[in-house]
Amino acid sequence: MNLSNDPMLPKLKEALEEIKSQNSETFYAWKILIKHYQSLQTLMVGDVGSEFSQYQNRDVLDHSYQIEIYTRHSDPMVMGSSSFTIDPLAELTEQIQKTYNNSLLVSNKPWDLPNKVNGEFEKVLTTDPMIGESIQAAHGKLLEDINKKIVTVTEVKANSAELFTNLKSVYFETSLGLSGQKQDSDIYFEAAVEKLPTPNTQEVLKYKKSISIEDADLASFIDEVVEETLSISDTVVPKTSDDSTILVDSEVISNLLNDVVHQLDASREYNKSPFMAKDDSILALKKATDSDQINITLDPTVPVMALSTPFTAEGMKPVKADIIKDDIVQTQMVGNRIGQYLGVKPNYIAGNMLVNRGDKTKTELIDSVDECIEIIAFSSLLINPNTLTWSSEIKLGKLFQNGKLVSMLKGGVVSGSIKENLSNFRFSNDEVKVNEVAGGFHAACGYVGPGHMLIKSGVKVVGE
User: Fold this and answer.
1) Number of domains in the chain
2) 125 and 269 belong to one structural domain
3) How far, in Å, are 12, 241, 401, 439 from residue 406 at the CA level?
4) Which residues lie closer than 8 Å to 114 by C-beta, 6 or more apart?
5) 66-93 confidence digits (pLDDT tens)
6) SS3 state of residue 227
7) Averaged pLDDT score across all residues of the chain
8) Domain boundary among 186, 204, 231
9) pLDDT digit string (tens) for 264-277?
10) CATH number of the domain bearing residue 72
């Protein structure tokens, strides 16, 4: 779908230019966003050893138009901006005039919007090819994969499940000559499962977000749900310890490192929030001699990843770069606006995290220490973006001693400091992908790196 051919686009441009000509001294620039969104949604109920029964199917379509108006006004000069979602059935001039008036109420430090792209946009594969070709066929395949797996599950009862397959196209254009279009796909699947025999007082509800069908790997995800469900009644609370060793998976690694990367964003320096700059160490303690090091590259071109894109939010070409090498910051990420505020040249570095792998398998990592707790699932991992400290309750874990499984764990609070954690850790030698789709309370995150991380410093457990 080529949104640049939308019949509403020339009407919007004409109406915006009319208001601009009437207010030429203060109307600086405009931006148009056209979004087309489709979501296939299936709600299901299940039973033991049988396929899910569908009780509701929805095909959600949304096509929207959004404008943003930038003004330069007052003395001394300030910059205002205001955005508005256009009702295509209502009178355009009135809506645009209202947006323009609102922008005059905003007073930001002025900056120049980009009027020239820093390079030709690359052709980046941002959509699962099957979803992009036919969202209906892709949704059907996912349902088929789910049912093929769930009929083999006889140890638990699958009570219900939901599957959402989403496809979104976005086109932008500015009055300064920038324009571009991209398409994104994502998948959401959740399942509610309980242990046999029924009835029970406990139910496990887990969800999986992904960008592609391959990335979703829903059969493996169902195995994870079953494992957690079978373990919930055979657990103990971990012992209290001020110096614990834990093993975490790729989802936790991506969350921890993502907050480290955010401290390299130059906007934090401008906003006077804690930040890291070139040549800073990401460590808080002396590095252990047998610890791995951190190397992170941001890459916006990895096929079908959450942060793969041909252009940034400012309409510029994103740049691939090494941002951390051997635990040392190589550069900050600087955009157009913040670069002008700080008086530094923008570099437009952005993209998915590519993280170095280790040289041991997951089993070898567990065997390398006298005792460790493998975190299968946290209840809710909370990370302080300023202090880079974190905490969570153990939803499910495993206690290993000398490489042998001793008990399943549930409860107790684990906490740590990322900068201390990175002083003594080991990565596994496998490579996995993690994609976190942007939501109302979190930004998108793309990660390619080791599947597990053995953290040997900076971790405390409060339990029995």
Assistant:
1) 2
2) no
3) 66, 17, 7, 38
4) 176, 178, 314, 315, 316, 336
5) 999 999 999 999 999 999 999 999 999 9
6) helix
7) 96
8) 231
9) 999 999 999 999 99
10) 3.30.2290.10
Q: Of all helices (H) and strands (E), which one includes residue 356? A: none
Domain boundary among 231, 257, 292: 231
Query: Which residues lie closer than 8 Å to 70 by C-beta, 6 or more apart?
Result: 28, 29, 30, 31, 79, 80, 81, 103, 113
Residue 327 shares a structural domain with residue 217 = no
- What is the tens place of the pLDDT at every residue in 98-131? 999 999 999 999 999 999 999 899 999 999 999 9
Cβ(383)–Cβ(415) below 8 Å: no
Spatial separation of the C-alpha atoms in residues 460 and 464, rounded to whole Å:
13
| Domain identity same for 257 and 127 | no
Q: Is the dihedral of CA 324, 327, 330, 333 positive or negative?
A: positive
Question: 239 and 177 in one domain?
Answer: no
Do residue 68 and residue 173 come from a single domain?
yes
Domain that includes residue 60, residue range:
3-231
| Contact between residue 280 and residue 329 where contact means Cβ atoms under 8 Å apart | yes
